[in-house]
Amino acid sequence: xxxxxxxxxxxxxxxxxxxxxxxxxxxxxxxxxxxxxxxxxxxxxxxxxxxxxxxxxxxxxxxxxxxxxxxxxxxxxxxxxxxxxxxxxxxxxxxxxxxxxxxxxxxxxxxxxxxxxxxxxxxxxxxxxxxxxxxxxxxxxxxxxxxxxxxxxxxxxxxxxxxxxxxxxxxxxxxx
Length: 176
What we know:
Blueprint: E1 2-5, E2 12-15, E3 19-21, E4 24-26, H1 32-37, E5 46-53, E6 57-63, E7 70-76, E8 78-85, E9 96-102, E10 108-111, E11 115-121, E12 125-132, E13 141-143, H2 164-167
Antiparallel strand pairs: 1-2, 2-10, 3-4, 5-12, 6-11, 6-13, 7-10, 7-12, 8-9, 8-11
């Protein structure tokens, strides 16, 4: 596997080694000892899968209690994935990175606790999978506005389809 460090401390992009032939392919998307060597040693306790249609944008989400580290990837389709550093004591506070994830190169992104995450779908549909280091806690979830001008993510969709919850996201500067 190839590990790509990003400008956000702890956020890494992982390119797995894929073994393929005319029958299909095989790769390991998680191996505990290899991830531990990368400093990802909190156990994953919950796996989630979502399916979304083209132009659906989900996020930017974070939990204030029970913060989650997430290992994210796409099993079908193609997405634009975005991670925002909302750790106020980090020099990268308010900065973001993005990567395209798809079912061709099978890249994964590790998002450590303390960062906000979101994605939008670039293909007709996409199946998005993620492992979490803590359980979902809706009472502590916050939503940061996907289009917060202070963050300035260059989303590749003109008219995203968003949930009511995501349409009420707050600007990062307004979150205590």
